[in-house]
Amino acid sequence: MSGGSYYVPATSKWPILGSLAMGVMMVGGGTWLVHGAAGSPIMLAGLVGILAVMVLWFRDVIKESMSGLYDAQMDRSFRWGMGWFIFSEVMFFGAFFGALFYVRTLALPWLDGEGAKGVSALLWPDFTASWPLENPPDSAISGPTETLSPWQLPLVNTLLLVSSSITLTVAHEALKMGERRATHNWLFGTVLLGTFFIIIQGVEYYEAYHHLGLTLEAGIYGSTFFMLTGFHGLHVIIGTIILASILMRIRKGHFSGDNHFGFEAAAWYWHFVDVVWLGLFIFVYVF
């Protein structure tokens, strides 16, 4: 690469292999939904294939970056790509938040006889709208016996994630100033906070399932609760793995004060996950 030319990677097998692995996982998932355990091995094989492709593909990108093959235009391409990825995640969670708001502000009042479609109250005339919905209108569905208090484990998790954004920002600033030891220590603290969040979320789920009757089958409240918090928890797990990978790269001497987009991309993702949690804490737990 010279004279500001754009780096064109060598022919890569990873896109087609990644697509095939994803196809295998989808076939396995469909088989599992229709035929039960028969699809599990296929789905697992596809998942392992996707993870293997990701690791090997990222390895190649890291090698290219450390070899100095990328220029300013390539850096902009990575930034645009990460920006669009986070936008897709905004739309993903927006759909689930939209479902929650639709149920709370429109569907439940309609079933209680209010609004433009209040005639829906004819379906269950004795139903009274409330949220959290502990008594679903259909008696065949059992709601939760109790809901989670936002001022216990959810509040602790909120403090953990807010703190993790602070420690990650400090690590980022330390990296830009060339203070690698401080970068390592603050980033290690961020990974620990993310790990603690995951553990506490697991404890919360155990309490919900075994003591509160709050499950995926506990009516619309249970399904929206676990879809929103569950997918967010998955993102925290992924984010923690990403930050742990960045931590290992820091230990290997990767990144510099003016060349560290891999670190920045991980930070963007983590801050996004933190913002989503604040929305969850307010609209799922508190109100």
UniProtKB/TrEMBL annotation:
It is a multi-pass membrane protein. PROSITE patterns: COX3 (PS50253). InterPro entries: Cyt_c/ubiquinol_Oxase_su3, Cyt_c_oxase_su3_dom, Cyt_c_oxidase-like_su3, Cyt_c_oxidase_su3-like_sf, Cyt_c_oxidase_su3_a-hlx. Pfam families: COX3. SUPFAM superfamilies: Cytochrome c oxidase subunit III-like. Its EC number is 7.1.1.9. Gene3D superfamilies: 1.10.287.70, Cytochrome c oxidase, subunit III, four-helix bundle (1.20.120.80). The chain crosses the membrane at residues 14-34, 40-59, 80-103, 183-200, 220-247, 268-286. GO terms for molecular function: cytochrome-c oxidase activity. It is an enzyme of class 7 (translocase). It comes from the Bacteria. One of its GO terms (biological process) is aerobic electron transport chain. Coiled coil: none annotated. It is found in: Cell membrane; Membrane. Keywords: Membrane, Translocase, Transmembrane, Transmembrane helix. Residues 2-287 form the Heme-copper oxidase subunit III family profile domain. GO terms for cellular component: plasma membrane. Belongs to the cytochrome c oxidase subunit 3 family. This is cytochrome-c oxidase. The lineage of its organism: Bacteria, Pseudomonadati, Pseudomonadota, Gammaproteobacteria, Oceanospirillales.
